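Please go through the protein record below and explain what the tokens say about the fold. Record follows.
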Amino acid sequence: MQAAGSQLRRSFRRTGGQQMQQGGPSSPSCPSSSDCFPLSHLNTAKCGSETSAEQEKHEPTYLSRMRSITIFYMCYLLCLGLGLACVVCVCVWNSQWRGGFAWDGKARQFNWHPVLMVTGLVVVYGIGAVLYRIPLTWGQNKLPWKLLHAALMLIALVLSIVGLCAVFDFHNANNIPNLYSLHSWIGIAATALFAIQWVVGVAGFLLPCSPISLRKLLKPVHVWMGGSILWLSIAACISGINEKLFFVLKGTANGTQPYSKLPPEALLGNSLGVLIVAFGLVVLKILSNHNWQRPDSRPEDLAYTPLLQEENE
């Protein structure tokens, strides 16, 4: 009996040892964490794929946004450079070739007219129009930028009115008819619309008593009218430059060459016209690009608030 018991114990030990080596049910083995926890591997892979997908999705968006901002600042610097070139060019033309400036009812008083109209009705107006497109102004309190926009437009309007006073006073002092040319009609129309635009803009967007419904109604009209006034201003300046060159470059006894010979003064006047057109095109490009609009000024955002409520934005 003892021999039989010892034989059974040895047989049991051999059987248990084989089961342990073969990974039987008495002690299951886990060769890897994925075998013990099969779902954990899937979840980890899923989380990793989602993270990489989000990174791949956001990276092109960020790069696209940075590219758009870079292009904007290139266009904005070009706008400033062209505006400065326009002012310098018109000042050099009237100071070097037209005898300088004065306010005495003579020809030198007229020279204020092109300088003030180009500076105010085109350059300052265009720079004020693109003010809201500057990305540095986004996400900030809009009130200071509204006031700066209104101030730049007021400066442009005052310069334009003084320029008109200069030419009207010169015409009256020399018995020259007023408002007989197409140039004068376009210029008067642009200045009159500009004055109306400024008054309506201040009343509709700066006064705290203006209702939101009125702002919603005025906003697209205000934007469209702003671009239209710029086009009229450019047309008035180009026609005025051409008209002036035809008047003064007749090739008579005063020693000037005719306009058809393209003397240096004609080259400068024509170059001024080209610079004005280029400036206007860059400004209109900035204004027409939807990606460069201030985020809270896009059509889908209707959250217009009165002036006093914007201090907390």
